[in-house]
Hints:
The complex is a heterodimer. Chain A is an all-beta fold. Chain A contains no helices and 10 strands. In chain A, the strands form 2 sheets. In chain A, strands 2, 4, 5, 8, 9 and 10 form a 6-stranded mixed sheet that branches. In chain A, strands 1-3-7-6 form a 4-stranded antiparallel sheet, with no helix packed on it. The model of chain A has no long low-confidence stretch (mean pLDDT 92). The relative contact order of chain B is 0.35. By secondary structure, chain B is mainly beta. The model of chain B has no long low-confidence stretch (mean pLDDT 95). Chain B has strands spanning 3-5, 9-13, 18-25, 32-37, 44-49, 53-57, 60-65, 70-75, 84-91, 97-99, 103-108.
Amino acid sequence: GAGVSQSPSNKVTEKGKDVELRCDPISGHTALYWYRQSLGQGLEFLIYFQGNSAPDKSGLPSDRFSAERTGGSVSTLTIQRTQQEDSAVYLCASSFSRGVIYGYTFGSGTRLTVV
Amino acid sequence: GQNIDQPTEMTATEGAIVQINCTYQTSGFNGLFWYQQHAGEAPTFLSYNVLDGLEEKGRFSSFLSRSKGYSYLLLKELQMKDSASYLCAVMDSNYQLIWGAGTKLIIKP
């Protein structure tokens, strides 16, 4: 597509429930990133996919968080047994290769609220 | 550890010039990015510097000094639509982007 698409744009869930967030990157972008942004905070790196390589999961805050990228395109971020501290905007970005020079293109994000 | 510092908030007047500073300490350097983020929206790419000096792009310019670990974003002829957060990010030796917390710029008429 023309841009990075994320769904849903907003999600309210009860504490303890599982949620799935979806990201559809720009066609042809080999790299895909998930970030979390809490109010007034910088972007917190979660996970990075590059082509067919093993993902860099070093930013995932706990084992409740996982992500997949199927067929080198669409990615799903899953949060199990959600907690109130998981409330944030989850941003997905994609780039050519490592994102040098042209940077990343971000989606509009999913605002997750855990009540 | 890796660290990006930028002011939390700045205020400027419509039509004026503002400079947003960013200092960094990272493991290696593969370039510095500035992004603009309007409230409730995704960050959008503004500039990329990998060599020392000034890069000019219309009303926006970005400067880099690698020896000082320092960059600034210069916005000229400020418009109300420039009210946004400006994020500084450095790409480290592992090609990971390390992000600052952002500078919220408030433009007053």
